[in-house]
Amino acid sequence: MESQDNKPTCLHSRHVALGALMSPFGGFDMPIQYAGIVEEHNAVRNACGVFDVSHMGEMWIKGADALKFVNFLFTNDITSGETGKCFYGMMLNGRGGVVDDLLVYKHSDTELFLVFNAANIEKDRRWISEHAVDYDVIIEDMCDSIGELAIQGPLAEQVVETVLSIPCRELAFYTFKLARWNDADIIVSRTGYTGEDGFEIYAQHDAICAMWDALIESGRCMPCGLGCRDTLRFEVGLPLYGDELTDDISPIEAGLGSFVKIDKEGGFIGRDAVAQVKSQGPARRLVGIELSDRAIPRHGYEVLDATTDHVIGHVTTGYHAISVDKSVAMALIESAYAGLDTPVRIRIRRKTFPGRVVKKRFYDKHYKK
């Protein structure tokens, strides 16, 4: 039974029936694992897994000013991109910190679909509504009516086409299409959060439940929880809001400057602040750290200078990474220490463990080119 304080997704009863370990996440009662994090992680790396990500927030922005409005909210530039393309970027506050990171699906210049983080649904609703007053737009909040599946792994295309009978091989990475499935309208995109090829499907709850049942009954797609979703995204250096991105972390500090189009026409909220960070150089940088020990660094642990007790930053995410069998972390540290191979230490409980700065991507992505 879900906590009274946390919402169930449309698939909640199915997770319970499968024996999933359930836990609160982002205001929802979500499956953390079924068979186990390692087994589910490896299924996505080597075959195919399906995630319930119906906790994510979705919203249509429609109207004559839809493109202009979303482009002003969003750091990336959606004006020149073709319809059918997905864009990753952020909404920033006036200080250049991150309100949220999100995807924008460009259906047309007058219809844009936004997907944002579950934990930020209420904040994002307010932020978007407050800034819409001077624009000719209609906001259609779909958070409570749409569910979402993420089907991920090297066999994802084959599974989606054969088990669900949804043609998808023509979709390039970060593109989408609208389709019909069993008389339901769906959105299918070649996107994901695992570093593997995969698809995300949005639909009304009944259709999401029927797709989930077909995938599980096929035996070709392992049910996966949020536990391995985190280990998978972490290994390929993808950020999680609340860890690598916050209201006080600039996308430049987080190494996401390529998604911030400072010179785009019309600008965007937070543009001047983030431009200043970029021109002056960030005081902090998000880096990878590899430990020489098997001790596991966790969120919030202190990162120290190699020879003194000077605290230079903190761990944002850390694991003994499953795919590479190493204890690694992403950490936000002083820029002076951010060069590759710089020696550092991480305080884990009462001991410190030596490590070195490495690239944030600990495992290579395998997207379809």
Walk me through what this model shows.
It is built from 8 helices and 20 strands. The protein is of the alpha+beta class and 369 residues long. A hairpin with a 2-residue loop joins strand 7 (98-108) and strand 8.
User: What's the number of extended β-strand segments?
Assistant: 20
Largest sheet: 6 strands, mixed
Roughly what fraction of the amino acids lie in strands? Answer: 25-35%
Helix share bin? 10-25%
Element pattern in H and E: EHEEHEEHEEEHEEHEEEHEHHEEEEEE
Gross geometry: globular
Rg, Cα atoms, Å: 21 Å
Structural class of the helices, strands and pairings?
Answer: alpha+beta
Strand order of the largest sheet: 11-12-13-10-4-14
Low-confidence stretches: none
Distance between the termini: 42 Å
Protein traits:
single chain; 369 residues; alpha+beta; six-stranded antiparallel barrel
SSE layout:
Elements: E1 7-8, H1 12-17, E2 21-25, E3 28-33, H2 37-46, E4 49-52, E5 57-62, H3 66-73, E6 85-92, E7 98-108, E8 111-116, H4 121-131, E9 138-141, E10 146-152, H5 156-163, E11 176-181, E12 184-189, E13 198-204, H6 205-218, E14 222-224, H7 226-235, H8 271-280, E15 284-291, E16 302-305, E17 311-321, E18 326-334, E19 343-348, E20 351-358
Parallel strand pairs: 1-3, 4-14
Antiparallel strand pairs: 2-3, 4-10, 5-8, 5-9, 6-7, 7-8, 10-13, 11-12, 12-13, 15-18, 15-20, 16-17, 16-19, 17-18, 19-20
Helix pairs in contact: 2-7
